[in-house]
Amino acid sequence: MSNTVLTFTDRGIYCPAGDFFIDPWRPVDRALITHGHADHARPGHRRYLCTDACAPVMIHRLGSISVETVKFGEVRKIGDALVSFHPAGHLPGSAQIRVEVAGEVWVASGDYKVVPDGISEPFEPVKCHSFITECTFGLPVFKWDDQNDVAKDLNAWWAKNTADGKASILGAYSLGKAQRLLAMVDPAIGSILTHGAVENTNQVLRNQGYRLPDTIHVTPDLNVKNHSGALVIAPPSALGSQWARRFGPSSTAFASGWMRLRGVRRRRAADRGFVISDHADWDGLMSAIQETGAENIFATHGYTDIFARWLNTQGYNAQVLKTEFGTDEDDTAPTGEAA
Amino acid sequence: MKDFAALFTTVDQTTKTSLKTKALAEFFKTASDDDKLWTIALFSGRRPKRAVTTTQLREWAAEVGGIPLWLLEESYPIVGDLAETIALTLPLPSRQSDQPLTYWITELKSLAALDIEDRKIRILDAWDQLDPVERFLFNKLITGGFRIGVSQKLMTRALAQATEQEEASLAHRLMGGWSPETTDFHTLIEAEDAAADDSRPYPFYLAYQLEDGPEALGSPTDWQAEWKWDGIRGQIILRNGTHHVWSRGEELMTDRFPEFARLSDFLPDGIVLDGEIVAWDGSQPYPFNTLQGRIGRKTVPKKLLKEAPVILLAYDLLEENGEDLRDLPLQDRRTRLDSLLYALPDDAPLRPAPPLAFDTWDTLANIRATARDARAEGLMLKRKDSPYLSGRKKGDWWKWKLDPLTVDAVMIYAQQGHGRRANLFTDFTFAVWNGNDLVPFTKAYSGLTDAEFRQITAWVRKNTQQRFGPVRQVKPHHVFEIAFEGIHASPRHKSGIALRFPRMSRWRQDKPLQEANTLDDLKDLLETYG
User: Got the DSSP string for A117-140?
Assistant: First the structure.
């Protein structure tokens, strides 16, 4: 590792050759942003650079910021560094960032998943020497079922609730997961109602040209009785709240990778837990890492200690990178609703 | 096992007792008699004998899953359940089968006759034809208590619905020492109950905690009060020349308490007594700690029999002359009990638990305040005309315990919980000051809300100073009020004391670290209450 393309500072991942940061957590002059989730796109930087697909959501969330955009795959020279953004498959517009300095290539993955979800730009493996990988679900117990199978379960749950005269309230993170679910559900079953946080994001993405089924924003004057048996998509925090009570008899569910664990599922006390994650599962992480061809792996965000130890037994030179991504760095918190 | 797995999935997907009961009743209507019998057995705490160790299971699962053992071990505390960890780690099965529950239990039992290599082949073969939910249940059959959100009470209710029998009489049929190997569904559930097993106890009637004072219970004259003793709730059965001692947890404890063999010298046949088993110093119970030394032993050395003899403090008579008295009013049962136990010699391992005389609730409150002097943990209040019901029922029986003792202590270690509490730090070690040192003196697991556990979990993650396996040493910062029922000297603990039923009663976020209690404070409590 004689050529250190990226270094790790208390403000975030830093590139000395280009004098910029990637997803920094304290204010900096120039920030390259992988995707719009709050732990990666933080307020307060002087200049932002991200993909044109990512920018609208980020502006929607952070307000008036100075943003420059690039297309996926477009190479920018910043100082002595060559920089390009490549699809991470995590959510619409999410990217991995490739940084090349004097022939040495590093990739910061941000968050990613390797299987296509029907709405995000599919993950693209990028060859590199060093790879900074997330490992939110970096344990062998995390393996995702095929999305089509989960979609069948999800639609069957909704259809049954509709038949029983109940609303189906589904808790999902408002950026990414909610839209992915919209792409999975069968709009023929009934109306799809959305919480304001979800609908605002829908609007931003629709304006960009992402195709989503029709949804109805739940406003105070909406008469929910006209939409009996509807699917209601809301942030997890809205479930069990006063807001959710207006829908009358209902079945509740969460959509998250954590739902793979029975203990977490039961603690959430929802009727159903659908295992749908926007992060790579165990096999996904391993295949992604292998395809980069990287020798040096930096594990961040998740079960970093365990995952790095495993990678070292597999012939990689792996280490733990302490960042402030995720709700928690040290080990997992199944409160991480984005997962 | 697909029908059983479907039952589990339904039960697991709801928090509503009514839906769980309905699903289980449906299963009881459709499953084979063998599967029904085993389902009853599993949900009443009866398991097939363990044929492989959990260590072997872990090793084999890691091997099949293509991961090193340490990686499986690291995943276990995060998942919080070994059976589930293994089920999630294994690759998908290569083939499908649909053998009934009883087939897999028989398969597990048959492993006992095989050598270890063959056991492994059979377990791996089972894993390879069970889907993840079935595997989880299969592993659960091996790894421990079959706890999957169905209580014995819920199972009994479902069975009552499915068979159109009285829940209470079914509960009685399910008591005692039966196992699926020694009976069948018809005999256990459906047959005329004439030839009942001599050892079979009655379902215990359990009291609810009285949260406010007793004034709301109405006139004091309708109520009988007794000390609430701190021993083991037990039923003693004398039938056909034999005797049996059952604990409330339906454990047969006859051999642990040989003192009761002499009961037939004092009492006629055809008797069932309900009472509290305590270690007795001649005039008072010893503290629970003394009895504890007896419980752990299957056979009792002579010395211990002499040092800590047990007696039954009897407070109810459930059967006399072979006749079930449970429908009689308590005062009638009590009269019969008193005349039965009248003028027993002092050395009899039995005496009536004396009712306490009181005419107003205030008088009774004053009596309650002296409970610790009587080596009791509070009072029992029983309505004089109450029948002896089964299980925990509100209304006629109440426990009115003393307020617990408390100390303010500093959290110094934290560990993650299991099952529903996996991934949350819920198991804490607490310390008190000894000069400038913090001396650990107790652990506690309960008393906080889920929201508080989440909050403390986030804090623990940020304030870990050192790790010892799963245990985190955390920065001494948070003070908790620890409530407990008793305190006694314990040479095995660094602090020299041990607590009974410690739990977190309050998170003292208002209290600075330095103001937590000291070891001397604890020693004073030991002096006063030990």
Answer: -SSSPPP-----SEEEEEETT-ST
